[in-house]
């Protein structure tokens, strides 16, 4: 489970980095998707930490909550990210800069 949390965290970091590229204007859907992943990641981490802290006293309810949080997060990370319209550029200089970076 710790490995999943780390993997999900890295995926979020990569998505955020892509949206912060110079000149990029991420779509609303992309930003919403990233926010959803962050929230589900936080919930899964919280449930796991609570489960670990309680140990054997966690009970079936806490275990079920952890499983549900994990399934929701896993499903969200597996679904395809929203398609973006690509970076929107305001000038010819921006288009040229994009062409240079893609080489």
Features:
single chain, 103 residues, mainly alpha, 0% strand
What would you say this structure looks like, in words?
With 103 residues, the chain is mainly alpha-helical. The protein has helices at residues 2-19, 28-54, 59-78, 92-102. Mean pLDDT is 80; it is low at 85-92. The chain has four helices and no strands. It starts with a helix and ends with a helix.
* Mean pLDDT over the residues: 80
Q: Cα distance, first to last residue? A: 39 Å
What fraction, in percent, of the residue positions are helical?
Answer: over 70%
Poorly predicted spans:
85-92
Total beta strand runs? 0
Q: Describe the biggest sheet?
A: none
Class computed from helices, strands and strand pairing: mainly alpha
**Strand content range:** under 5%
The H/E string reads: HHHH
List the helices and strands and how they pair.
Layout: H1 2-19, H2 28-54, H3 59-78, H4 92-102
Helix pairs in contact: 1-2, 2-3
Concise account of the structure shown:
The protein has helices at 2-19, 28-54, 59-78, 92-102. By secondary structure, the chain is mainly α.
């Amino acid at each position: 489970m710790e490995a999943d949390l780390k993997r999900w965290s890295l995926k979020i970091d990569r998505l955020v980095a892509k949206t912060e590229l110079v000149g990029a204007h991420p779509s609303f859907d992309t930003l919403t998707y990233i926010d959803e992943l962050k929230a589900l990641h936080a919930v899964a981490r919280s449930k796991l930490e609570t489960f670990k802290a309680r140990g054997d006293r966690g009970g079936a309810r806490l275990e079920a909550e952890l499983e549900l949080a994990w399934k929701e997060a896993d499903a969200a990370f597996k679904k395809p990210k929203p398609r973006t319209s690509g970076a929107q550029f305001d000038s010819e200089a921006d288009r040229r800069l994009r062409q240079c970076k893609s080489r």
